[in-house]
Every structure is written in C-alpha cells, then in structure tokens.
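Record now logged for everyone:
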Amino acid sequence: MRVLVTGGAGFIGTHVGAALLAAGHEVVALDCLHPAAHGDSVADGSFLLGDVRDPDVTAAALRGVDAVVHHAAMVGMGINLDDAPEYVSCNDLGTAVLLAAMARARVRRLVLASSMVVYGEGAYACAEHGPTRPAPRGSDDLAARMYDPRCPSCGGPLTAGLVDEDDRLDPRSVYAATKLAQEHLSGAWARETGSAAIALRYHNVYGPGMPRDTPYAGVAAIFRSSLERGEPAQVFEDGAQRRDFVHATDVARANVAALMHLDSSERGGLRAYNVASGEPHTVAEMAHALTAALSGPAPEVTHRFRAGDVRHIVASPQRAHAELGFSASVPFAVGMKELATAALRS
C-alpha cells in the first residue's frame, strides 16, 4: 500500500514511517518543518518539503496514494493564547485542506493522530453520586494546593478511573479544542464520501527523537533536558497527577494496526481508539525514573500550575486490543531508561 504520512519528518511521524516501511508499505512523507516541532534541527531521511495547508502541495503528495496517516499538527500546550491562530491554522485548516484533497483524489482511508486531551479531565466517581465529570479546576484552589477535583454535587472527594472512547469529550485548552475539531472534520469527511477513518487518541508519547526543550515538547523531554544541564526536574503541582506514558515505537505499531484494520474492514465513518500502555504512572514517578537513570539531582516539586492542565487522565486500552489487535509492549522502566540517553531533537 502507498501511504502518505503528513508530519512525516516529525517525532512520531518518523517512527510511524519506519514501522510502515518495515511492514512492507511504500511511504510518502510530507512535512513543512514547522519551527515549533523542529527548532533549528534539520530532519533526516527523504521527505517532501511542503505545508499540508497548501492545496497544490497536498494534491501532489496524494498522487497514487492508497491511504493517509495524518500527523501534521502543532502539539503541546504552547505559550499563551497568542499561539491560538497558529494552532487552529496548522491543525484544523490543515486537516480541512487535506480532507478536501483526499475527496477529490478519491483516497478513502485515513488514520488520524488524535490525543487524549479531547477528554479533558479523566473519569471520576463519587462515593455518594457515582460517576461524574468535574468542572475545570479553579486558580484559587490550585493556588491553595487543592489539586484534586471535587464532586460537583456534594464537594466530596473523587476516585479517578479509566476513560474509554465513549466518555464525554471536554477539551480544556486551545490545543485540545483543535484536536477534537480534527476528529469532527474527519468524521464529516468519512460520512460524506463513504470513507473510513480511525482516530488514534495518543496518551503521553515519549521516546527517541522527541523535541528537546520547547514549550511544545512533552514533559518527559523537558525533564530530560533539565537533568542534562545538571538541574533537577521541575515537577508541577505535587507530582501526583496520573498519566499513561506510551513509547513512540508502540504508537507506530498502533498506526500500522489501524491501517490494516481499515484495509480489511467494510465499516465506514470514524472510530476512535485510545493508544495507551495500560500502565499509569504519576508525573513524579516519571521524574524519579529519569533522574535515577541519569544520576541527577532529586526532582523539585514546585507546586506551580498551568491553566488548562488536568489532574488525572488514564485510559482503558481495551478497544484497541479487541478490535485492532494492538497492545503496547515497551515497559515504563525500560522506556524511561532508554529515554535518558536517547538522541533528542534540538
């Protein structure tokens, strides 16, 4: 199968392209080398230099293509709302231009790189009121170090659980809103063209080739960069926020599995899947794992916080296992030890 990978020179895109090649597919990689993802680095390997927002570039890249794996996007929380127009342009306008071109070219299969941020906060339950989704945490509570959300009905404590793909979607940042819009656009394209799309909701992806240390990088890379400078990892809040850290090679395998599922399925429309390790850890645990691997100074719990951050977001990986045959294989301890010395992007 000839597959177009947008964002194919980026962190995850390069892993996905390598996995597709290993599975016997022909890969066309398209990337604009956006500075938020690439900084001053020059991408390795062969790819088409161009912006998915340019209809002529996208149309040319789609020639002879059987399927698209769409990773071209700005990621991360960004700096402030001044980033909003670029997030919307790269992520949503870019997706719209791509989908329109795919409709004209009659390319009917799409794997979309989505994100767990579309859920907002994770799943919670109150002992008295049962399953609930709390409101966004207020700055006054966060400043008072009251980090865990409370039951909106009684104010009591909540127990965090697993989100599945049918949970309510409640994006709480500009980035999250653009990722959900990508899903909606892809769903509309699939329905109107009789096509099939899969949205892979990545959890916290880490591994070799991460951007080194920018406002758009993942927290694992930011911690790693601090430790390389001989500085402690700066842990926000109290470090007890829970995440699912999934290795980039597992994410790449999930893309191959999704593509093969689209190729063999008669089902149209869009279907979402969590891509997660199923092995949740706290941010503090991740900081300590990297610190130990690099023999660095102990992590510093700063109690700083960011508006839009959520407390706990941990996913059920069962749908991906049952329907795509995908399960993550890189254990947390192994992946973190590798990340400690892996090459990162400048």
The chain has eleven helices and 16 strands. The radius of gyration is 20 Å. The first helix runs from residue 11 to 22.
